[in-house]
Specification:
The chain has a single domain, classed as FAS1 domain. Helix 2 crosses helix 3 and helix 3 crosses helix 6. It is of the alpha+beta class. It is globular. The chain has 7 helices and 8 strands. Strands 2-1-8-7 form a 4-stranded mixed beta sheet. It is about 30% helix and about 20% strand.
Length: about 190
């Protein structure tokens, strides 16, 4: 059954489907794009919102998603993937992390987090499969930013055009309608505390 789901998910990514398929970098260095996968594979009976709320390393993210109203997105019927900054990310940001969580900064942190969210059900295995024989693949976020995925000896790196680079770190949380993939930093540069 699991092999069938994996094959279906990869077929969805690799095939030409209504909202797009998965493009790849060719040997001639053309840029590649992971477009929005449309099929969801159920791994949990709980929504992604519930999975995030229950994840011990994502409690700050859970609170911020609640505060900004973005958590509603992960309670709906649509499938989404979030590259989820772990609590340690906000701790490392120190005063800036605290400042970002203040009520008057909600529009800013919501914009930052939209750059971590992509439509569709995308797992780390899907990203690994997309990187087979390719140096890089790309996907658009809800914040209209391009994420670039590459692989190095220690795992999968995600970078943006603004120079942010993070690493996938830890097991993904898979809900009935989406995936939270823990990452080691923010994918968007935030202004200094004013």
């Amino acid at each position: 059954m699991q092999a069938g789901r994996t094959a279906l998910r990869l077929a969805t990514l690799l095939g030409a489907v209504a909202l797009g398929g998965l493009g790849g970098c060719s040997d001639n260095d053309d840029e590649s794009t992971i477009e929005k996968p449309v099929m969801a594979v159920v791994h949990s009976r709980e929504t992604l919102a519930a999975e995030i709320a229950e994840a011990p390393q994502l409690q700050v993210l859970s609170d911020v998603l609640d505060d900004t109203g973005l958590m509603q997105l992960f309670n709906g019927v649509g499938s989404y993937t979030i590259f989820a900054p772990e609590d340690a990310v906000f701790v490392r940001l120190a005063d800036q992390g605290t400042w970002l969580r203040e009520p008057e900064q909600r529009p800013l942190i919501a914009a930052v987090l939209r750059d971590h969210i992509v439509p569709g059900y995308l797992t780390p295995d899907d990203i690994e499969a997309a990187l087979v024989d390719k140096d890089m693949v790309e996907i658009q976020t809800m914040g209209d930013r391009t994420l670039r995925f590459t692989r190095d000896p220690s795992g999968i790196l995600i970078s943006t055009e603004n120079g942010s680079v993070v690493r996938i770190s830890g097991a993904a949380k898979q809900g009935s309608n989406g995936v939270a993939i823990p990452v080691t930093g923010l994918l968007k540069t935030v202004p200094p505390v004013s």
